[in-house]
UniProtKB/TrEMBL annotation:
GO CC, one annotated term: Smc5-Smc6 complex
Name of the protein in question: Non-structural maintenance of chromosomes element 1 homolog
GO molecular-function terms, A-Z: ubiquitin protein ligase activity; zinc ion binding
Main localization (coarse): nucleus
Class of enzymatic activity (EC top level): transferase
Any Pfam family matching the protein: SMC_Nse1
Organism per entry: Pseudo-nitzschia multistriata
Length: 274
């Protein structure tokens, strides 16, 4: 397909849905493809001579991505890519997210205005602090600053002798109690992110309410998300762990790397090219 050819109607609709949703989970993308390919919008594309609505030979979502990219890349400097999110791999496998992104690191992709042109300089400076903090936490592997602090030992009471005997089984060869650690999330508590407003410099400042609103917008627009490991009772509270969402990695690749994201910490990306 030449870059100047019109996409089949089904591919146009699929592309529109993807752009509107920013980052689309694989399950939702496949549901959209199935509804189009299955005939919810008609089995024939009248605008293209009555052929299949998704185009000749397009039987899978991946084939549709390849076909769309043939036109998007040379014609508009855009392409559909897929991100592999392994943070949920413990609950049934990695999740894939799809998005339409720039193929080149232009000034728009690198600028703070990529988040929201309606935000003022104070809010954009605050967003930069938030993203940088999450990037730094991710580079540390999600570890907390006090992970390596040793716990103070207490003298056991006589009544605790039986419990201590059981605990002996959990001690290493040096007699120190072994710590059972769960995998750390690269997230930061919502309250701590909001309090980054106190680190604003250069005359920038935000009130508590303003900083809270900005973090809320980042969540609403899917730049941030609540970490999967956050308990259900904390997900809506200021104690919820927040982390960079798939949309940030997909659309802000150049922005997060400019803020120090290490290459080996970036998720895997899949490219749909013929």
């Amino acid at each position: 397909m030449d870059a100047t050819e019109q996409l089949p109607r089904g591919q146009q609709l699929l592309l529109q849905r993807m752009i509107a949703n920013h980052s689309l989970p694989d399950g939702e993308a496949r549901a959209i493809f199935a509804s189009l390919h299955g005939g919810d919008y008609g089995t024939d594309d009248e605008e293209n001579g009555g052929g299949p609505i998704m185009g000749e030979g397009i039987e899978t979502l991946e084939a549709a991505f390849v076909s769309i990219n043939r036109q998007l890349r040379p014609g508009f400097g855009l392409e559909i890519i897929t991100m592999v999110d392994t943070s949920t791999s413990g609950s049934g496998g990695a999740t894939h997210y799809h998005a339409v992104v720039n193929t080149a690191a232009d000034e728009v992709a690198k600028s703070e205005t990529v988040f929201s042109r309606s935000w003022n300089v104070h809010e954009r400076a605050f967003v930069r602090l938030v993203v940088r903090a999450l990037v730094e936490r991710s580079n540390r592997g999600g570890s907390n600053d006090n992970d390596d602090d040793e716990e103070e030992e207490e003298e056991p009471d006589d009544d605790d002798e039986e419990e201590n005997e059981d605990e002996d089984e959990n001690k290493d060869n040096n007699g120190k109690k072994q710590k059972s650690r769960e995998p750390q999330s690269p997230g930061i508590q919502r309250a701590d992110l909001i309090n980054l407003r106190s680190d604003l410099e250069g005359g920038c400042k935000l009130t508590l309410d303003q900083a809270t609103r900005v973090v809320g917008v980042l969540l609403e627009e899917k730049w941030l998300r609540v970490a999967p490991c956050t308990g259900a009772d904390r997900r809506g509270s200021v104690r919820a762990l927040l982390e960079l969402a798939p949309r940030s990695y997909l659309e802000l690749y150049h922005y997060v790397t400019a803020l120090g994201m290490e290459a080996d910490k970036l998720p895997q990306f899949l490219y749909h090219r013929a």
